[in-house]
Amino acid sequence: MTEQHPPPGEPATGQRRVVAVGRGLGRGLGRGLRTSARAVGKGATGTARVTGRMGAYAGQQASRAARAEGAGESGLSRLIGLHACNAAGDTAVAISLAGTLFFQVPTGEARSQVALFLGLTMLPFAIVAPLIGPFLDRFSHGRRWAIGGTMSIRAFLCWVLGTAVITDSGWLFPAALGVLVSSKAYAVTRAAAVPRLAPVHLPLVKANARTGLAGVAGAAVSAPIAGALSAIGPEWSLRFGFAVFVLATVLAIRLPAKVDSSLGEGTMMLLPGHGEQQATDGKPRRPRMRIPGPVAFALRANCGPRWLSGFLTMFMAFLLRENPIGDLRPELLLGLVIGAAGVGNTLGIAAASVLRRLNPSVTVVMALLADAAMALVAALFYGLVPLVLLGLTAGLAQSLAKLSLDSTIQRDVHERMQSSAFARSDTTLQLAWVIGGFVGIAIPLLPRLGLGVACAVLAAWAVFVLVTRPRGSAQVAAAA
């Protein structure tokens, strides 16, 4: 037989089969890759779609909660969103300054630096803060611009702080003081604006609690972002705070116009026997209003939980660095205690927003007694679990007591004087926190000694509060 050869340029039969098989495999592989890519693309698209839907759902639920019970129609929801931004910005500033003043230096040097920071910022604030309330009372028709001003000032100071922390500038403490004063000015103005925006059928305690929950949510969202940026450099978390406060400035200006309403401010509600007095020249003197008894009682009771908050913040921070529990890292221990306090604060706000009736006079006393009892338990059975429970109790008591105080001021103090009342109360509580912080810094780092001192101080203060209660509050002592 004559062997047949393929025409020139054509492959042999075996080669043709190999080529055909290769083409088939290539087409199959191509189809497989296209199918896989299509599947991966669909999966990524589906994941993105699900994530987007979840985010949209969470946003819708948050918006629905903020607008519930008429808060959307009254304008309270806008104030709630603004307060979330305020808390987010304050959290960014706190994280940056805490990392600068505390975690990057030895314990002894850190204690002196923190004490210096308290002295240079908190004590001057006690002099400046009483002027905030009367100033805002006098210019009550510009509350939106006053709130926006506190935001824009903090935005500017965050930028200044961002430079000061990396250059060791002398502007660090003055800028920190400015941030603190602006933050308290916002708190005073916001508290005076809540009654104007709250729906008629929504109790003030519940309106304040809903606003407080928004603040917790804003801080929870801001904390990991600011923490990650602070790990790169403390100035970056302050730059983040700058952006947040710029956004908050815009939101403040867009608040409803009735925040500036002067309805009902023409007359002043005075206590019996404190009407206008005639001067020697026949001109009436400016009317004065004393602090109502229930407000003074609630304020005195609030000083206990606020003192404990300052004490635990400073004492536990340095104690856990020097005497950690077990093999746990000090940062983790401190995070657990602070996290428990944050959870307690959230639970207190949530409870106040859910409960229909909450007696402020009874609540402030129970909060004070609960703090004293839990401090005693932590002193007797010192360990991780008692400390976490102490943090949880301290956060819960502080939030419930503060909400009760705010509602008492909004109920018993006339609108025209509420800013002054809130300024005085915030100043008093800030001083209580500072005194507690100084005690926490100065006391020896002995667990049972420190917690025992805290229990003794709170117990003595509870006795003082109950003994000096107003005459009409006898039911408070019976309930306690």
Topology:
Layout: H1 13-67, H2 71-74, H3 76-103, H4 107-138, H5 143-167, H6 172-197, H7 204-232, H8 234-253, H9 293-322, H10 330-354, H11 360-380, H12 384-412, H13 418-442, H14 447-467, H15 474-479
Helix pairs in contact: 3-6, 3-7, 3-8, 4-6, 4-13, 5-6, 5-8, 6-13, 7-8, 7-10, 7-12, 9-10, 9-11, 9-12, 9-13, 9-14, 10-12, 11-12, 11-14
The second-level CATH architecture of the largest domain is: Up-down Bundle
The tally of beta strands, per DSSP, is 0
CATH fold topology of the largest domain: Growth Hormone, Chain: A
Q: How many domain regions?
A: 2
By CATH reckoning, the class of the largest domain would read: Mainly Alpha
Encode the helix/strand succession as letters: HHHHHHHHHHHHHHH
Give the N-terminus to C-terminus distance in angstroms: 119 Å
Assign a percent range to the helix content. over 70%
Number of helices: 15
Q: Give the low-pLDDT segments.
A: 9-15, 17-22, 32-61, 264-287, 473-480
Task: Give a quick set of tags describing it.
Growth Hormone, Chain: A; single chain; 15 helices; disordered C terminus; 2 domains
Q: How would you portray this structure in words?
A:
- The protein has 480 residues and is mostly helical.
- It has two domains: 72-258, Up-down Bundle (Growth Hormone, Chain: A); 292-480, MFS general substrate transporter like domains (Growth Hormone, Chain: A), CATH 1.20.1250.20.
- Helices cover 78% and strands 0% of the residues.
- The chain contains 15 helices and no strands.
- Helix 3 crosses helix 7 (204-232) and helix 4 (107-138) runs antiparallel to helix 13.
- The protein is globular, with a radius of gyration of 30 Å.
- The relative contact order is 0.11.
- Mean pLDDT is 75; it is low at 9-15, 17-22, 32-61, 264-287 and 473-480.
